[in-house]
Design brief:
By secondary structure, the chain is mainly alpha-helical. It is built from 4 helices and no strands.
């Protein structure tokens, strides 16, 4: 069983990985509006170009990042030395979302 204190390097590493994977997973919400403006300025067709880029990036980058965020989140709960528990309501809400 992996149990570590919150101040340990392992816990902090998983916390960093969890935060980075969330940033990568939700980056499209911030990136696509900027990319759409750039495509409009260049006069390229917006719909077909954006859908090609989005489809490939979602399958290769953003989807796996969401899965990694969940895995790292569960690891953080396991490594938290019972400070954070699965029975806490905010953990249950996060798992449902």
């Amino acid at each position: 069983m992996l149990v570590a204190a919150i101040d340990d390097f392992g816990y902090r590493l998983f916390l960093l990985l969890h935060i980075l994977s969330i940033i990568v997973a939700f980056a499209p919400g911030f990136v696509w509006p900027i990319a759409a403006m750039q495509l409009r300025k260049q006069g390229q067709p917006l719909g077909s170009t954006m859908s090609k880029i989005q489809a490939s990036n979602t399958l290769r980058i953003h989807g796996p990042a969401i899965v990694a965020a969940g895995v790292f989140g569960f690891a953080l709960i396991g490594l938290s030395d019972k400070v954070v528990k699965f029975s806490q309501s905010w953990i249950s809400i996060a798992m449902v979302l």
